[in-house]
Design brief:
189 residues; mainly alpha; Membrane-bound Lytic Murein Transglycosylase D, Chain A; two-stranded antiparallel ribbon; 7 helices; 2 strands; 50% helix; 3% strand; elongated; disordered N terminus; Lysozyme-like_dom_sf
Length: 189
Amino acid sequence: MTNKMKLQLLTVAGVLGLATAGVAASADSYTVQSGDTLSAIAANHNTTVDKLVSLNNIANSHLIYAGQVLELDEASAAATTATATEATAATTADTSSYQSSVVLSNGNTAGSVGAYAAAQVAAATGTSASTWEYIIAKESNGNVNAYNPSGASGLFQTMPIWGDTSTVDAQIQAAIRAYQSSGFGAWGL
């Protein structure tokens, strides 16, 4: 691992330590520590780097983050996906009264969950909900489980450095952190 990569890991360790404090690791998962590498984690847990990359949708096998929870086997990864889906469904039931007012020229919209998330981020940032709905429509088409091979995920397509995206509420917090740190630059606006 290069010094630059080590510095990147240490720089985000503090941010992710706060962002992932509520993430529960299963018996078949591992929480990345500062200085860890995928190859060392794989060797210590009798698996391969390729398997860890596949199970955890890791875009860059040379870049992992302190505090990141890695699933070590298929059963654990499936349980994590089921828990995230259940949490998403629970939030969706609470957001059915929200309606998206933004529809992009390609038909993308934030949907009701996205409209809810946009309203929450608008309240925290002072930027209009319609602006946040536009970002959600553009980035994920309102899909709370959207994932990009670059590592971005969720409604707002935030990167892991901004925090957990396993629930809609976590995605809202990640978007707020990204906005507070980078403004709209986090979304290329």
